[in-house]
Every structure is written in C-alpha cells, then in structure tokens.
C-alpha cells in the first residue's frame, strides 16, 4: 500500500512540477512549444534510490545500467516497457492510477535476429509545393525534423554493426529501379492478400464516404493536389535513403519473406506515423505480429498523427508507444540502441 501511495504521490508531484515550469516560462516559452516538440529529460531519485526520468511529461522509472554484451550476438539493452498491471478496483474509474507505468530495464536483444524497419520515411514536398499534403498530414514537418535529428544515430550504428535494415515504401514510382527492390522481388514472396468476401457498395455508402472526404479528411478537392505532389516529389527522405542492397518491401508478405530468409524474428520500427501506418498498413506491426514477429519501436524516431486536442502534449504519440509496449514489443531510445550496436564492433 505504501508503494502505491508513493507512486500516486510521485505522479501528482511530477504533474505539479511540470505545470509550474510551464507557467514560469512566459509567453516566449509558449510560442516556442507551438513549433518545437520538447523532450526534456530530468533525472531524480526516489526514496528507494531508484533513478526516475521525467521524459517530456512521462515519468519513467529507470533501472537500467547501460548496454552490454551478454554472450555472442546477444546484447543487454536499456529498454522501455509499460507495466500494465496492478489496477486497484477500489479506485473505480481511476483504477489504472496504480499501474506500474513506464519503466526502463536491461532486456536481452539478439542482434543476429533483429532488423531495423524504416517505414514510410518519405519526402512528399514542401508546404509551398504540396499544400494539401501538409494540411492533411500535420506530422510531416515533424517527421522531417525527427529524421534529420535522430535517424543517423541508429542507422549508422546498425550498418557499422551489420544489423539488417529493411525499408517499407510509401506509394509508388520512386524505388522500382533500386537494387534493394530488385533483390526483394527475386525472393518470390506471396502475392499481397486480397480478401475474397467484400461488401457491396451502393449510392448511400458512396455518399457517406464522399461526406467523410469533404468534412473529415483530407478535405474538399484535396486528393487531386495530394496525388499531383506525390507524383512529382515522392521519394525516400535523405536520411532514410536505402544503401546498397538493403531490401525494399511494398507489403507484409515481402517484408516477411526477407526477414525469414535472414533468420530475423524481431523487427524494430522507425518512421511515420506510429499510431497509423506503422501499426496497420502493409508492412506494419499488426500484419507482422500475425506472422510471428515481435515488433518494437524507437521512441525518438517515430511520431503519431496528432489532432487539435492532442497536439500540445503529443498525447497520441505517448498513447501509440504505450500500445506498442503492451501489444507488440518494446520501446527503445535511439542512443541506447546505437550504444548497444557499437559494442559488437569492439
């Protein structure tokens, strides 16, 4: 009971500290937060001496000691996970307050059976040249920034250590002549699944979909502009450009075929967006989990689709990472993975 009270008290104190800090920042801090996703990391220790990280607004209990080699290709990597048990029914609708929450510990990872999946890390133009795309997908500028700031840390370390890197495409027309795509096609993966039983459309259903297009997303007459911009600008982001024969995949079946050929059973995702395409699109976590792969994510190399209500706190990104941890695999920080991979070169 004392641990429960301590956790709740620590959670509330963290919230009060963050509120006070934001209130003291003044108008200039508020203006900066409109355009910059802040990832402040402050380290403290609780009464038990356990290190706690305030990562943005998320409290992480850190029991990790740093990357190390366990044996051969098996590493121990500082790994984030969400302790999703211990709810207290006596708290009614607030029962989840007694969950363990985000924690960090040294968890094994077999480098020979792990691959990095760079998914939908696409260049789609600029706001001036592709306005409909940027009005439709608010996260695009954030994806450009995250790729520029964080991708190299992971990808350079992975390539230097011989970690497999796979690429999952976004759209068509920009990768078909690359050697990695040719290599993937040579494997002869199963055809993309096409469901046999499909609903029959009618006038009312078409009208409903038309209403969604005009009033939900992407907006009136937007698809023509989006298609035109993609036809002209679509490509891999420079920081995500495949190198050499790194496999390029267009479907879950192709990704699975490449991974099985290479003896991979753990896929670590980076790319966009973690609450949408990375979960449910072809090559995403849902389809790959159904094929037996553990699917994890790199926290500082993903972001989610935010809306008006979630964007100040990037709540959708936090929720998506929680979902990855609970339903699919683990969550890593890029530097922790890079430090672990670097040990393989020593």
Distance between the termini: 46 Å
Largest sheet: 6 strands, mixed
Overall outline: globular
Number of helices: 12
User: Do you know the CATH topology of the domain at 111-194 and 223-343?
Assistant: Rossmann fold
Structural class estimated from helices and strands? alpha/beta
**Residue fraction in strands:** 15-25%
Mean pLDDT: 87
Supply the CATH superfamily name of the domain at 111-194 and 223-343.
Answer: Isochorismatase-like
Approximate helicity band = 40-55%
Radius of gyration: 22 Å
Q: Count of DSSP E strands?
A: 14
Low-pLDDT residue spans: 1-42, 44-50
Would you state the CATH class of the domain at 111-194 and 223-343?
Answer: Alpha Beta
Side-by-side strand order of the widest sheet: 1-2-3-6-5-4
Order of helices and strands: HHEEEEEEEEHHEHHHEEHEHHEHEH
Name of the CATH architecture of the domain at 111-194 and 223-343: 3-Layer(aba) Sandwich
Which terms summarize this structure?
12 helices, single chain, six-stranded mixed sheet, disordered N terminus, Rossmann fold, alpha/beta, six-stranded parallel sheet
